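Notes to self after the Tuesday call (sharing in case useful).
The group wants a holo model before anyone commits to mutagenesis around the pocket. I volunteered. Ligand is iron/sulfur cluster. Logging inputs and output together so the record is complete.
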Amino acid sequence: MTKPPLTLYLAAPRGFCAGVDRAIKIVEMAIQKWGAPVFVRHEIVHNKFVVDRLKDQGAVFVEDLSDCPDDRPVIFSAHGVPKSVPEAAQARQMIFVDATCPLVSKVHIEAERHSEAGLQIIMIGHDGHPETIGTMGQLPIGEVLLVETVGDVALVDVRDPDKLAFVTQTTLSIDDTKDIVAALQARFPAIQGPHKEDICYATTNRQEAVKAMAPQIDALLVVGAPNSSNSRRLVEVGARNGCAYAQLVQRATDIDWRALDGISSIGITAGASAPEILVDEVIAALRDRFDVTVTEVETAKENIEFKVPRVLREPA
Ligand code: 10D
Ligand code: SF4
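Result:
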């Protein structure tokens, strides 16, 4: 039986960012240095495949520091942690390594700097997401207020409208955030903040690549996990920019083949925490059913790399 033809647009950049790469390396190097088990507070990055692979190497994942013994090393996930977490680890004299992405740490420092200058902070982020919890947790309760939508901006109850600054989560939708920042600036003209927002290079580039391909594809598959903020944003970007069917898949077994019936073009991308091996798996599954021609849609080149903390570069 002849397979129907399918043009596959492959987004570039896609998949692992420098912060994810570094965080995974930190866990692997910690196991090499101190032996198993090494505890990890929260999924090191939001991907079950990555987490399961590290579990096989000797990592133990917990949600709370209180679930770690005093005498084993603990790694904090790439999303960042409230100040109280390293403080508690220090008080228990634990060995800990912070795998917070340097671009998330930069936002932490920004928030602290504004607070030291007497400003109250408004964070644009998703309620309950570990990065939001971590960034808000850099300062005492009440010093950072959360807004998630343009609607929230009208309701936020600030201490002094002339003494405000904003920071953002790094993985937000560029377009939504632009609107929220504009609403903040309209209501609080004196508000200080970054040049645009704190969305990182990887989030920006992955969204741009999807935007470039969305008008020409019948369907978009985003390889990523349901708890991965940046991956979910890629699905939204596809849907909002002209793609009739945009779906998140963790791996090939998640593909809804009935939804892809009759398509002649498809876009594939992957969130910053999704390994390339899962992209390959999805493409292989498409090749089983279609006569696939791959075209790469490259909208940016990335060559950013972050060093692992010094403690892991030194011999045990
Ligand atoms: O949910 P998310 O997009 O923030 O995290 P994920 O682990 O999927 O991707 C890496 C992004 C990080 C660590 C936040 F910047
Ligand atoms: Fe860092 Fe951006 Fe990757 Fe988050 S998505 S880990 S901020 S590089």
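Two things stood out.
The mean pLDDT is 98.
The chain is about 40% helix and 20% strand.
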